[in-house]
Design brief:
The structure is a single chain. The chain has one domain. The chain is built from four helices and no strands. The longest helix is centred in the first third of the chain and has 33 residues.
Length: about 130
């Protein structure tokens, strides 16, 4: 049951924070550089599939080991930041290398956001689960 609580809390934090980040941090930068590529509204299924998988990976490599081996929240923050750098860095640097009009400002903004989002979501998920369970 603890794993389910951890997943639900982390998922909720991730999706809630990312909604804010996408709306106020990412969207303005992407509109400035690749507005012709952006949809008027996002496609829900790919969003859910990505979040479900990403949070699952985050739990597997960081959050669950932190709970079962009593790792510190600082350990969670650092390791989750590495997962965020890997995930968001792969996307951003691949696009920068292969797509015209992909701008370094987009890379810097989205990579920084992805690292912070992943680290805060995982750390908050572990912290809240420890309080709850």
């Amino acid at each position: 049951m603890t794993l389910v609580i951890l997943y639900v809390i982390t998922f909720a934090l991730f999706i809630g924070l990312d909604f804010l980040g996408l709306s106020y941090l990412i969207k303005p930068v992407f509109e400035r550089h690749v507005s012709a590529l952006l949809l008027d509204s996002f496609r829900l299924l790919p969003v859910i599939v990505f979040y479900a998988f990403y949070v699952g990976v985050l739990l597997y490599f960081v959050s669950w080991p932190a709970l079962s081996h009593e790792r510190s929240l600082l350990w969670v923050l650092g390791n989750a930041a590495l997962i965020g750098a890997l995930g968001y860095g792969t996307y951003e640097f691949t696009n920068l290398a292969t797509l015209k009009d992909w701008h370094p400002a987009m890379v810097a903004t989205d990579l920084s956001w992805g690292i912070a989002l992943t680290a805060v979501s995982a750390t908050g998920g572990v912290w809240l689960t420890r309080l709850w369970a």
